[in-house]
Design a protein that fits this description.
The complex is a heterodimer of chains A (277) and B (615).
Chain A: H1 10-32, H2 65-101, H3 103-117, H4 121-132, H5 136-163, H6 166-173, H7 178-214, H8 226-232, H9 242-269, H10 271-274
Chain B: E1 9-18, E2 25-35, E3 40-44, H1 51-58, E4 67-78, E5 81-84, H2 90-96, E6 101-104, H3 118-129, H4 134-147, H5 153-158, H6 166-178, E7 184-188, H7 196-213, E8 216-221, H8 224-230, E9 233-238, E10 241-247, H9 248-253, H10 258-265, E11 305-318, E12 323-338, E13 343-347, H11 354-362, E14 369-374, E15 377-378, H12 384-394, E16 395-398, H13 412-422, H14 429-441, H15 458-470, E17 476-480, H16 488-505, E18 508-513, H17 516-522, E19 525-530, E20 533-539, H18 540-545, H19 550-558, E21 582-584, E22 594-598, E23 601-604
Classes of the chains: A mainly alpha (277), B alpha/beta (615).
Chain lengths: 277, 615
């Protein structure tokens, strides 16, 4: 298969490399590293700065941060991707239908979305998670539902704009059914916004998982997740800043890579930029 | 007019480049010309010719758009000395911009800052360049508004741009450009976004200010008719190079270069169809298209399309619960017929309802009342399912903006195939054959089929839009400003294609346009719309040679003629702004009643805000 031109420039390459690396770590680390390396406590080296024994330092219980970050990747990446995927699966059709149909349909759907929006996303996720019970699957559902209204709102606005473009009207007079109009003419034209929003949402989802974990509803200690690690570092920022920096850097790097990857993906899908280097 | 003093501006071998992905892109390759004091030089060319880049270079504004003046001299005589603007530093340029050189931009809607009052925007420049006090600057602003003939200038100073009409805004922009009595005024397509009557006023205003103040004008335009009305000298540009330069009479009467001849040939001149009953194709130099009249098709006595008392109103929503608080009367009791194989043109200014009328017939906008019969089928009574299956199989639309009417994510083949498949016109391999045939028909190479819209020029895209409309073998095509966005030579080609298709396939057109000269060439019948009403309808000859309604007359008198020996734009033009079409709920409008002044030539009796229109 030919590599699209958008992935042949620096930004596209860096984005793809970072995303693939993070994915590889998330999948391979649990297979290659024994699980207890992330939970093994070294009480003589609590809050140790990076040393040869602990290249990235240790946390307040003397657990090795390098292994925690590597093993925590799976939980964080899996929860975030699954939650964002869920919010897209619900929010995309919701926004498309609302923006395209307009009138009563739009009013009903958007009032529903407004209701969800009126709760802070974290509070909403917290409530859902509390009701459903704390486990991995419910954390995903909670975050996924909490993120849906934002996505639905943005997609609805884009769909509304695109639905009024002359090419959609022309396609309508060309005899296309509503379904074909939405899927063939409106959807491809709003994909750039969906991709950008999805990459941003992934970053927030990683942090949202942290928030839930902190309140005891997400990942349960002693298991590692990036969000849990950032939360745990809160009390030691002055004495051991690396406890925050290590998982923070992992989140930042992932988000940066995702943004570059998302931009390249958007360009690769757009016929206007597909051919250019 | 052209004195023998030293020129005010002398551009010498100007070259401007823009940064591109694969090395520099040349915007202007090699341009040299000069402007004498008090002279109007029109730079004319099609899109991409570099005419705007030239004017922006003179202001050194081109650098803000990523351009770079790579070589050449921009001589400007300042206080008796010649300085080179290409080498001038930022401070010198700031002192020159707005003071020595004033500029008017194309879009009056965006060239004023929406958050400041007119007074604030007008006095800023005066206080910076002239060091005037607040009250002195205000007095000068008032004086300027009077100079550009804005009614109630004191009121205007307190207003914000959105409270003024497009024409008023452009007057304010001109007043601002005139504030420091510049010796050179650069006008970059200043009337392109305006309606024809407002264009006439603005052109007359610029011409009067030039005569009164003795400033020179550099006028950038794509419109040869405007050139003929305004220019002392003409510079013709093509792809970053100067093609020809000379006095306006000479350029029009005796063009030396092939490109100039082509450009001039493609321009329709209002009035040149006098005495001819049938439409004629546009002239194209260097193409073998015959100039013979299009053979008229036998007119079927039963009209193809009958529109009776069509009324379309759009609700104006407001208040806490977004209830309907008023109605826009977009189309008001309009009736007309279109016979098979003929073209009815709907003309009028923006907001007159001509587009709404076309959209209502297709039911892209739902009409409020009335009757639309296509081949005796009542279109307005169809269910939305039947509308899709039956009405749109017989009626198609070509939209104005070729850049917005094709889906950027879909290959051209698929866009033309869609209607064929959706309407089940062909199946199997016949579909592919039909698409190839359609590409041949609109004179596009078949290799374009697998391309995407962005790979085509505006004219080529409009051909695709026509191919898509033709795919279903429609009886009627509604062309809403279908050629307005195209360069004049491309416009002529697309129009000729449409006329050929009409002659061969017997298609009827509803041709919606603001361009009277184009309409005069291609229409069989013409309807003039004003404020939602059809004020006059008749054969092309009746409307153009014997207009009866005062609005039709004023519209025709405002059209610039592409002939420098017939200057019809005078300072005494003063058209009324179009009144608001917004009416309160429950407003009972009177039915349209017409006088038949000649067979099939109808003139509206109703008063529609025209009581004091000029003769």
């Amino acid at each position: 298969m030919k590599v699209p031109a958008a992935f042949r420039n620096t930004k596209g390459i860096v984005g793809a490399v970072v995303v693939l690396t993070v994915l590889a770590v998330a999948i391979l680390a649990p297979l290659l590293i024994p699980a207890d390396w992330a939970t093994r406590m070294d009480m003589r080296a609590r809050l140790s700065a990076p040393t040869w024994a602990h290249p990235l330092g240790t946390d307040q219980l003397g657990r090795d941060l390098m292994f925690r970050v590597l093993l925590g990747a799976q939980t964080s990446i899996f929860i975030a991707s699954a939650a964002v995927l869920m919010s897209i699966v619900i929010g995309l059709p919701l926004g498309l239908v609302s923006g395209y149909m307009g009138k009563t349909t739009d009013n009903v759907l958007m009032r529903l979305v407004d209701t969800l929006l009126s709760f802070p996303a974290l509070l909403l996720a917290l409530t859902i998670s509390a009701v459903l019970g704390p486990n991995l699957q419910n954390t995903i559902i909670a975050i996924g539902i909490a993120f849906t209204p934002f996505l639905a709102r943005i997609i609805r606005g884009e769909a509304l704009r695109v639905a009024q473009m002359p090419y959609v009207e022309a396609a309508r007079t060309a005899g296309n059914s509503d379904l074909r109009l939405i899927t063939l003419h409106i959807l491809p034209n709003i994909m750039p916004v969906v991709i950008v929003q999805a990459t941003i949402s992934l970053a927030f989802a990683i942090l949202a998982e942290a928030g839930l974990s902190f309140l005891g509803l997400g990942t349960q200690p002693p298991d590692a997740s990036w969000g849990l690690m950032i939360q745990a570092s809160r009390d030691y920022l002055d004495r051991a800043p690396w406890t925050a920096l290590v998982p923070g850097a992992a989140v930042a790097l992932t988000v940066l890579g995702l943004n570059m990857f998302g931009d390249a993906l958007r360009d690769a899908l757009d016929p206007r930029t597909r051919g250019e280097a | 007019m052209v004195g023998d003093q030293t020129p005010l501006v002398s551009i010498d071998k100007l070259r401007v480049e823009f940064r591109g992905e694969d090395g520099p892109i040349v915007g202007v390759e090699d341009i040299s010309f000069s402007i004498a004091p008090g002279e109007t030089v029109c730079v004319v060319g099609e899109s991409g010719s570099g005419k705007s880049v030239t004017s922006l270079s003179l202001m050194r504004l081109v650098e803000f758009g990523g351009g770079r003046i790579t070589s050449g001299r921009l001589g400007f005589s300042l206080n008796g000395k010649q300085i080179d603007l290409a080498q001038a530093d930022t401070q010198t340029m700031q002192a020159i911009r707005g003071d020595e050189i004033g500029m008017i931009f194309q879009e009056p809607m965006t060239s004023l800052n929406p958050v400041f009052t007119i007074e604030r925007q007008m006095t800023d420049g005066l206080r910076v360049h002239r060091g005037l006090s607040r009250s002195a600057a205000r007095a000068r602003a008032l004086e300027l508004l009077q100079q550009v003939r804005i009614p109630e200038p004191e009121q205007r100073l307190k207003q914000y741009p959105h409270e003024l009409s497009g024409g008023m805004r452009q007057r304010v922009v001109i007043a601002m450009a005139m504030a420091c009595e510049p010796r050179l005024l650069i006008a970059d397509e200043p009337t392109t976004a305006l309606d024809v009557t407002i264009q006439a006023e603005i052109l007359a205003l610029i011409d009067r200010l030039k005569r009164e103040t003795g400033m020179a004008v550099l006028f950038i335009t794509h419109d040869m008719a405007v050139v003929a009305q305004m220019a002392d000298r003409v510079v013709v540009m093509y792809r970053g190079n100067l093609v020809e330069e000379g006095p306006v009479e000479r350029i029009f009467a005796d063009p030396q270069e092939e490109y100039t001849r082509k450009l001039l040939a493609a321009v329709p001149r209002l009035g040149e169809m006098r005495g001819k009953s049938a439409p004629e194709p546009m002239r194209l130099v260097g193409e073998t298209a015959s100039n013979a009249p299009v053979t008229p098709i036998d007119v079927d006595p039963k009209p193809l399309l009958q529109v009776h008392n069509l009324t379309t109103r759009y609700p104006v929503k407001g208040g806490l619960f977004r209830r309907t608080i008023a109605n826009v009367h977009a189309v008001e009791d309009v009736s007309f017929d279109i016979p098979r194989g003929q073209t009815l043109a709907l003309v009028g200014e923006s907001g007159c309802g001509k587009s709404s009328c076309g959209r209502s017939i297709l039911r892209l906008s739902e009409p409020t009342s009335g009757e639309v019969l296509l081949d005796q089928t009542d279109i307005l009574a169809l269910s939305s399912r039947d509308l899709r299956r039956r009405a749109w199989r017989d009626m198609q639309m070509v939209f104005q903006d070729p850049f917005a009417s094709l889906n950027p994510y879909m290959r051209l083949r698929d866009q033309v195939t869609e209607p064929i498949r959706n309407f089940g016109i062909h199946t199997g391999s016949a579909v592919e054959d039909r698409v190839s045939e359609l590409f041949d028909r609109v004179e596009l190479p078949r290799a374009f089929m697998s391309r995407f819209p962005h790979e085509l020029s505006g004219g080529q895209r409009q051909r695709i839009a026509i191919a898509r409309a033709l795919a279903v073998n429609p009886k009627l095509i509604i062309a809403d400003e279908a050629v307005s966005a195209l360069d004049v030579s491309v416009q002529a080609q697309v129009l000729n294609l449409m006329m050929e298709l009409q002659a061969e396939l017997g298609i009827s057109y509803l041709f919606i346009s603001h361009d009277m000269a184009v309409v005069e060439r291609i229409a069989h019948r013409v309807g003039v719309m004003y404020l939602g009403r059809l004020v006059e309808i008749g054969s092309r000859q009746q409307i153009f040679e014997n207009p009866q309604h005062s609005y039709t007359k004023s519209l025709l008198s405002a059209v610039p003629v592409a002939d420098p020996t017939k200057r019809n734009i005078h300072d005494d033009l003063n058209f009324r702004p179009i009144p608001s079409p917004v009416f309160p709920l429950g407003y009972k409008s009177k039915p349209s009643t017409y006088d038949e002044v000649a067979p099939a030539h109808l003139v509206l009796q109703n008063e529609v805000g025209l009581d004091a229109a000029p003769e």
